[in-house]
Amino acid sequence: MADDPYSTLGVSKNASEEDIRRAFRKLAKELHPDIAKGTEEKFKKVSSAYEILGDPDRRRAYDRGEIDGRGDPRHGFRQYARGARAGAGAGAGGGGFEEFGFGDIFSDIFGAASQRASARPSFVAKGPDVRYTLEVDFLEAISGATKRVTLPGGGTLDLNVPAGVTDGQVLRLKGKGQRGVGGAESGDALVEVRVRPHPHFKRDDDDILLEVPITIDEAVLGAKIEVPTVSGRVHLTIPKGTSSGRVFRLKGKGVKSAGRAEAGDQLVSVRVVMPETIDDNLAYFFSEWKQKHRYDPGRK
Q1: What pLDDT band is residue 48 in, cutting at 50, 70 and 90?
Q2: Measured over all CA atoms, what is the biggest interatomic distance in the chain, rounded to whole angstroms?
Q3: Lowest pLDDT segment from 104-118, 148-162, 222-236
Q4: Which residues contact 293 (CB under 8 A, 6 or more apart)?
Q5: How many CB atoms lie within 10 A of CB 237?
Q6: pLDDT higher for 290 or 214?
Q7: Which of 126, 108, 133 is nearest to 178 (CA)?
Q8: How confident is the model at residue 42, as a pLDDT?
Q9: 193 phi, psi to nearest 5 deg
Q10: Which end of the chain is less congested by CB atoms within 10 angstroms, N or C?
Q11: Domains in the chain, CATH or no CATH each
């Protein structure tokens, strides 16, 4: 049984010519094969429905029951079929879709000067952008890295993560999105970078923050200790009498961001850590020292 053209276009039987035209415009724009994949059959049904309802004579014939939803004559109405279909056939050979106003509608929808039934309408549009989220390690974000991104369709894409990229930064890959329509350029791939936290390093703009534990003897006597940086290990000199919380600056050992002439610094704060067990010798030494030295750290 043929579909009801009114139902196909989503209009009522008392719809005006403009209502029918507007409904077809909307559906044609959504379902045209140049725009949406897999919609050929639906588009054909919509076009067939408009062939009937878009022509006043054929619409009246359908309303009277003389033709069905495909435009074929019903039993007992052969005379109409021969007359009306003969005219339609001539239109199909010479005018095609324009016989029912399709040319003007497609011209409005797709911006073409005129359209024919034998040619698909021209429609040009840049492809949609696609979005991805990429997780990188803290040190990869500092130094840069090449990461492989798996695309939804199963393909892969090698992405160069620039040195100094920040958490939440979006990288744009030109032309790596979905394909354009009608030969237009493809969209872009927008990759949002998520930086995993590091167990020791923290980032403050282009500076790197690090806390290092030192022993009580290193704090009292001074020492040269080895500390990690984002670019390797270096030696740091701890002066005599260093207190917890003192900050040392390692020049140029921070982040080298794009567009910056110099790298940031690494700020190393020290924390004096007492031994787990206070033996008698250590306790006696400090008890004797306390008796001979008055020391007030400024507690209130």
Answers
A1: confident
A2: 128
A3: 104-118
A4: none
A5: 10
A6: 214
A7: 126
A8: 86
A9: -90, 130
A10: C
A11: 5-110 (1.10.287.110), 130-195 (2.60.260.20), 202-292 (2.60.260.20)
Distances (CA, A) of 193 to 92, 231, 299, 300: 56, 21, 46, 47
Phi and psi of 166, rounded to 5°?
-105, 160
- Rounded Cα distance between 50 and 106, Å, is 13
What is the rounded average pLDDT of the residues 83-87? 41
Per the structure block, which two tokens stand in for 236? 């740091």
Q: Which residues contact 124 (CB under 8 A, 6 or more apart)?
A: 180, 181, 182, 183, 184
Distance CA 84, CA 82 (A): 6
Neighbours of 299 (CB within 10 A): 4
CB < 8 Å & 24+ apart, contacts of 194-199: 194/133, 194/134, 194/135, 194/136, 194/167, 194/168, 195/135, 195/136, 195/137, 195/138, 195/141, 195/165, 195/166, 195/167, 196/135, 196/136, 196/137, 196/138, 197/138, 198/137, 198/138, 198/139
